[in-house]
Amino acid sequence: MKIDVERLLIQFQDEDGVVLGSPFDVPLDITPEKLQLVCNSLLMKEEPVPFAFFARGEAEVVSSLGSCVKAIGVETEQVLPVVYQPQAVFRVRAVSRCTSTLQGHTEAVISTAFSPTGKYLASGSGDTTVRFWDLSTETPHHTARGHTHWVLSIAWSPDGKKLASGCKNSQICLWDPVTGAQIGKTLTGHTKWITWLCWEPLHLNPECRYLASTSKDGSVRIWDTALGRCDKILTGHTQSVTCVKWGGDGLLYTSSHDRTVKVWRAKDGVQCRTLQGHAHWVNTLALSTDYVLRTGAFEPSPARTPLQHSGFVPQGSNPERLVSGSDDFTLFLWNPAADKKPLARMTGHSALVNEVLFSPDTRLLASASFDKSVKIWDGRTGKYLMSLRGHVGSVYQVAWSADSRLLVSGSSDSTLKVWDVKTGKLSIDLPGHADEVYAVDWSPDGQRVASGGKDKCLRIWRR
Amino acid sequence: MPQNEHIELHRKRHGYRLDHHERKRKKESREAHERSHKAKKLIGLKAKLYHKQRHAEKIQMKKTIKMHEQRKTKQKNDDKTPEGAVPAYLLDREGQSRAKVLSNMIKQKRKEKAGKWEVPLPKVRAQGETEVLKVIKTGKRQKKAWKRMVTKVCFVGDGFTRKPPKYERFIRPMGLRFKKAHVTHPELKATFCLPILGVKKNPSSPLYTSLGVITKGTVIEVNVSELGLVTQGGKVIWGKYAQVTNNPENDGCINAVLLV
Fold it and tell me: PANTHER family from the xrefs (chain B) (predicted)?
């Protein structure tokens, strides 16, 4: 005799609360795969998209609906809202081996970045050169000489045709990755070293003309790279400015050692808001639209989730969110375009927070701190999700894979670790560097991870 | 008239010798020759001492000359870039060498065991009772001397009420009572005016701690809710210790440095 399985009324909802279809009842032993089939047919998609389901928005349905319901203790009489989240269609595989050690720098490698297409790799170092590397053969391509001191920060233009680099002597140079030659003349103007560079997003200006730079002297300069001169100077911070991000709707966000984050209008250079709340230096900023602005112009894989492109319209359901990490061991989640008060304060680290980064689908937030742990938070509410422990030295930088499932972190204990965010466990440990790892980057096509450090080598890791 | 001014007095009264200035000038110009004569002709212990002194003098002179010369000529900056390149996020931070970290950890464990705590001013001059407390004479014939008045700055709590004047032994004058302190954060290098919560320890005597006397080196507790510090669990920190760094009774304000 067949035992009747209990049934439950569920209602599909998307992340913003919009209901899909009408409530219908399902047996309690239904699995996520079957739920996916139902959801796909309701949404009438041509290609099936993988989903993750969260009962009542909190607990994830892992094995079957029944176990999840028992865990959170829901009444079986009422309709249960089940939130569905589309996951990335493509899957990035974890990198597991070091395919090459690129030597060539004669001093520590300080910064490394893949171009938005993932075709070129650039690295800045303490020997005052910026080197371009050919990724298909994993050999040096060009060496760009022109700086007179350590190259502290590099930034690719959103169209991938130019690279800007800033040095400790407060000079900024532009390079062409194809020829390795300098474009235009050196931009001077800052009085102390350059801490961060950020280009104007592609959708605001397709010719990639304007570049924002911040320096220890407390000012932010917007440069016109076509004319080679400084367009605007934004002053207001009283101490060193640590980070600048150019938002999708023309607002500039800057963080500084004077414990504030300031919001500026990029068009006329007027300061809109000051976000206060931190008790010590603000080290880093992250925007939810960061990844989209970096890679939005290009399509590395044919089946990208449509969620990515909607980031260009920050108003409406998904306004641009800003996270700031500071020396006071906490992070703040802001909605800077709307109001001055933070959305959430995220505490838990026991040492200063060095870097924060939104995942490419903006649902998760990772924070790397000097207390040897990486913490994952919810990207919308700021709720603490999990801690990734394993490093034995301060974690310097993190990078997300393009499908938001994997995270790589580089630390002062000379190892990189790849973490699986779904389970919260270490996926692969990547030892190999001889000294501290200063910079980490994951290529936008998910194929490679590049890391550079104090041992003067740049290592490329692949599957 | 003081003993040592007779020469000046004579000069005031009678003026200089007629050839005084010329003789002075000539004597000074002979000094170089006399010095070189001495340097050549001295022998024995005196010579050794003299030469040693002269050698030191010459080194100093050479240094000052070199300094002046450097100021005059503008040197081109050294082309070689310094070693030890670090990324921008590590630039303003002092990195600790790994050996130092281990030895620091061991030292801290030992100190914790011994119960000693690190404060910015470890040793301060102990203030005696005669300095801090002034004897007040009372009574019909002003003979009783059991009352004392505090001559240093003190802190009394919010709900402080005096004991009946007939019975109070220690008088803390209202003019010397302070509620706020200027506290400097040692890392941020910023100073805030924060209300005092209480006196934790006065290094001179536990009696002063109980009275609330604030002198140089006293550890006080201040209300830091203004700064916005938060613990790991998310609770707001609202009290922290600070150590007083000036003599408040001389300056009229309490300057302290926060103990982080």
Answer: RIBOSOME BIOGENESIS PROTEIN NSA2 HOMOLOG (PTHR12642)
Q: Which residue of B has its CA nearest to A452?
A: B87
* Regions of chain A where pLDDT drops below 50: 1, 300-316
Name the residue range of residue B243's domain.
129-258
Per residue in A111-126, pLDDT tens? Answer: 999 988 888 899 999 9
How many CB atoms within 10 Å of residue A86?
A: 18
| Per-residue pLDDT, A313 | 40
Query: Taking all residues of chain A, what is their mean pLDDT, rounded to a whole number?
Result: 85
Query: Pairing mode, if any, of strands B170-171 and B144-150?
Result: parallel
Domain membership flag for residue B72: no
- Cβ neighbour number for residue A299 with a 10 Å cutoff: 12
A288 and A396 inside one domain: yes
Percentage of chain B modeled with pLDDT above 70: 91
Q: CB B88 to CB A152 under 8 A? A: yes
3-state secondary structure of B211: helix
ipTM over 0.85: no
The DSSP call for residue A118 is S
Whether B230 is in a domain gets the answer: yes
Tally of structural domains, chain B: 2
Q: Where does A190-340 have alpha helices with state H?
A: 290-295
Write the pLDDT tens digit of every residue in B194-245. 999 999 999 999 999 999 999 999 999 999 988 877 776 667 788 999 999 9
The shortest C-alpha distance from A32 to chain B (Å) reads 35
Q: Which residues contact A179 (CB under 8 A, 6 or more apart)?
A: A142
CATH number of the domain that residue B158 is part of: 2.40.10.310
CB < 8 Å to A152, chain B: 87-88, 91
Domain holding A180, by residue range, is 97-300+318-462
* Burial bucket for residue A182 (CB in 10 Å: 0-12, 13-18, 19+): middle
Of A110, A280, A347, which is closest to B188 when you measure between CB atoms? Answer: A280
B89 chain-A contacts, CB cut-off 8 A: 242, 283-284, 354-355, 396
| Residue B151 burial by Cβ neighbours in a 10 Å radius (0-12, 13-18, 19+) | middle
**Cα distance between residue A118 and residue A194, in whole Å:** 25
Total number of domains in chain A: 2
CB-based contacts of A177, cutoff 8 Å, min separation 6: A115, A120, A122, A132, A141, A142, A160, A161, A162, A163
Q: How confident is the model at residue B76 (pLDDT cuts 50, 70, 90)?
A: low
pLDDT tens, position by position, A266-281 = 888 899 999 998 999 9
